[in-house]
Design a protein that fits this description.
single chain, alpha/beta, 2 domains, five-stranded mixed β-sheet
Amino acid sequence: MKIAILPGDGIGPEIVEQAVNVLNALGEKFEMETAPVGGAGYAVHGHPLPPATLKLAQEADAILFGAVGDWKYDTLERSLRPEQAILGLRKNLNLFANLRPAILYPELAGASTLKPEVVSGLDILIVRELTGDIYFGQPRGVRIAPDGAFKGEREGFDTMRYAETEIRRIAHVAFQAAQKRSKRLTSVDKANVLETFQFWKDIVTDVHKEYPEIALDHMYVDNAAMQLVRAPKKFDVVVTGNMFGDILSDQAAMLTGSIGML
């Protein structure tokens, strides 16, 4: 097995070094190759995802990724900032399904900021769609507003969009995950306000016909955020879009005491 080792920035190299020590201790035969990514990639090659790093990732069987990001690169144009490396890997490798478990182990119940009776036994799986939504939608940028209440002023804009195929494939991943657990799935959306997520809700509901044994419910994202704190153990598998999944999975991580426990 060939593993691409991408330490990245900040605490990334420190964590990846220890992870490599664990891999070496297994006694298995791994072919490991290291390459710069993120701010480290920009510093060496002038791009957060250098062509050689992407090529290595594409040829590898697995990727061990650290972290990217450094305040000193915040003034660069967005396409050259460290965070673009992880977005580029997701898109180029079609990594559309992000499985984010949040498990509270009994020994660490005291690490959570919530009462033990609220979080003890917590075991949630958030299935986050990873290559669509407002993070990748086009067009985007800064322009002079062509209309609206502030026509003529500078405005920033992004585009939230999902193709049917994108929703169907992540829905299948989530339903199949639910089959292996408690056969419960919550789809999180904002269908009461956003056309994109009314479409999301409609497609997930349609895919549900293929999994009649799964209990499906729909929940608005603001309510889901509240319920994760109020009664987190009522959730089992959660499926949602890229942006909502980004936020909710970090929130769920803190139920376990730290995002480092994911």
